[in-house]
Amino acid sequence: MKTQAGRIFIAIIVMMAGTATLAADVVLTDGNATATFDLNSQMGMKDWHVDGVDHMFQQWFWYRIGSAGGESSIDTLDLNGWLPSNTNLDPQNDTLFVQYGDPAGRFVIELRFGLTGGTPGSGTSDMGESIRIINTSVTTLDFHFFQYCDFDLNNTLVDEGVEITGGNTATQENLGYTIAETVETPLASHYEVGVYSGTLVSLSDALPTALGDVAGPLTNEDLTWAFQWDFTLAPEGTFIISKDKLIVPEPATLCLLGGGLLVLLRRRKCR
Ligand SMILES: [Ca+2]
Ligand SMILES: [Ca+2]
Ligand SMILES: [Ca+2]
Ligand SMILES: [Ca+2]
Asked: What is the value of pTM for the model shown?
């Protein structure tokens, strides 16, 4: 089991290896929640505080063009710009737009994050995410896009369970908190739950990664999950991914479902 100190050390190395064109983190705030983004490193969305508790260690995106070679994290692209904005009556910035561009001019990747907080003490918060990938070249691109998530719910390394159901919904639970991510569209080509740092190592090596379609459940480890989209992007074509993450302070969703892990959770946590 990796220690928190070891993970912080790795995070520092990752940040040092990234470009340093943006000094400050970008922070969104709404209601009882804040989300913090490091747009210049693989840490990406690195904090998600709900009522002061940080549930997120790391969420970020990787890509590969073609069937050979390794993946690259999107922070290795040119950071063309970012714009936090305020979209509601809570006067703080709740939405972030970010655009990265391929240095060779083949494509751009745009991210939109929209944070919705709950009332103070509610323990709940939502993050809507959309990703737009645009082919700006004159040739078709064989695109492979990855999202990697490492939640440490309630700011503890070991979480009680993670599972992917239907190929599109990841649910992780610990200490009375549940994070559920639903891919609204399109369905991922591949997915996997994992134990830190297996998936991250796979995305960092020099070989093409295909996630293993491991649905779980996995229990009582430092848990992670990832989705992969494989698609062909024609010149001037656009690929859009729409997702949503919701943290709730109850294991209610898990208790309503079947499955071995869920039976275990029901025994431990539900009436
Ligand atoms: Ca964090
Ligand atoms: Ca606002
Ligand atoms: Ca790889
Ligand atoms: Ca974790």
From this structure: 0.87
For residue range 172-218, list pLDDT tens digits in order. 999 899 999 999 899 999 999 999 999 999 999 999 999 999 999 99
According to CATH, the topology of domain 4-269 is Beta-galactosidase; Chain A, domain 5 (2.70.98)
User: Which residues, other chains included, contact 185 with Cβ-Cβ below 8 Å and sequence gap of 6+?
Assistant: 240, 241, 242
Q: What percent of the chain is predicted at pLDDT more than 70?
A: 84
Domain ranges of the chain: 4-269
Radius of gyration of the chain (CA): 18
3-state secondary structure string, the chain?
CCCHHHHHHHHHHHHHHCCCCCCCCEEEEECCEEEEEECCCCCEEEEEEECCEECEEEEEEEEEECCCCCCEEHHHCEEEEEEEECCCCCCCCCEEEEEEECCCCCEEEEEEEEEEECCCCCCCEEEEEEEEEEECCCCCEEEEEEEEEEECHHHCCCEEEEEEECCCEEEEEECCEEEEEEEEECCCCEEEEEECCHHHHHHHCCCCCCCCCECCCEEEECEEEEEEEEEEECCCCEEEEEEEEEEECCCHHHHHCCCHHHHHHHHHHCC
Q: Which ligand is nearest to the CA of 148?
A: 4
Give the number of the ligand closest to the Cα of residue 157.
4
| Ligand 3 centroid, distance to 95 Cα (angstroms) | 31
Q: Residues within 5 Å of ion ligand 3 by Cβ?
A: 70-71, 202, 205, 207, 209
**Cβ distance 161 to 267 under 8 Å?**
no
